Amino acid sequence: MNIGILGTGTVGRAIAGRLGESGQAVMVGTRNVAETMARTASDAMGNPPFSTWQKRHPKVKLGTFAKAAGHGELLFNCTAGAVSLEVLKLAGEANLNGKVLVDISNPLDFSTGMPPTLSVCNTDSLGEQIQRAFPAVKVVKTLNTLNARLMVNPAMLADGAHTIFVSGNEAAAKAKVVELLKSFGWEDIIDLGDISTARGVEMVLPLWLRLFGAMPNPIFNFKIVR
Amino acid sequence: MNIGILGTGTVGRAIAGRLGESGQAVMVGTRNVAETMARTASDAMGNPPFSTWQKRHPKVKLGTFAKAAGHGELLFNCTAGAVSLEVLKLAGEANLNGKVLVDISNPLDFSTGMPPTLSVCNTDSLGEQIQRAFPAVKVVKTLNTLNARLMVNPAMLADGAHTIFVSGNEAAAKAKVVELLKSFGWEDIIDLGDISTARGVEMVLPLWLRLFGAMPNPIFNFKIVR
Fold it and tell me: Into how many domains does chain B fold?
């Protein structure tokens, strides 16, 4: 399947690498291809420049946001929450409409220091904002509640015995995403309901961030014991 | 030990019942003792009137908020978040100061329908508001992330293999509360840090509420798999 991934950061690379390895035709989208390829320094998170990463994943293509969105039958929003709406505008409605968009973003606001707060929460969510801004896109919120390595390889922790959530308005779109999550190894997948339930999974980030402070490493996740 | 419990609802009863059964001298606090004892109807949650409950727990005393707070060496805030600050004022600083207050409340706002939103979150929390309003009280936030029956009997679910969190400014106060949690059967207790980490556990309620909608019953909890 043709996959379009918006964002070249940790999350975009994790999803692109995993889907590329499983034989999908993946294009990652960025603001400016030449600029992204010209970077030689590691980013603030210590990730090597994209060109270095791409050498290890030669089948994964890089294009503009619009090219990647146009390429994909299935799309992923792996951009920072602060720029997600702007990036989706750059990708272009015509390239997005009618498609399933897996939204992994979090509305983190770093402007007042660490840990970040949320730029939207409680009575709204970024997932809902995206769905409202692009009503013909099938937004499915998932995978935003854990470390990128775990997203695509849940079995690396406790043989995968932990939980992932999905939120979205359309059952068929969620079913497609659940299928994909299963291909990553996810077994415990909870459908929370419509896209307004994205408030729940986005508002879990403040707890995740404090756990990140209390844990020896970021390889942890929520399991809903019931 | 003398225990004071503010609130006669589901949570107050669960804590009072458990501690009363374990031989502690428990007094539950309410706004108006005569009114509380005169009630003959079940409450909105279907709980029987307090007088009926008390017949099964004859050693648990009922007093005003001030009496219960004065009685307790260790205190519990089991009131609805919307009235917690007011109730603590009624309890009186002189009866609270210097004591550990286990804060189980959640700042739920039901004014815009179901599921409730939070009346404070993101850049503040009810736990912090209480700590600021009563600086000489040792506020420890815990147990607000799950059903009342599970609070005092974690072993009823998966032999207790799930997680509880504590937040508070003073290590000695948290150690005392951890001791108490262990006496309830809690084994996986994560210290998140100071009282500002109450934001994390209070903001998990929107997810809890959606899970409550998706699950067959409220006997579920978060486990931090790591």
Answer: 1
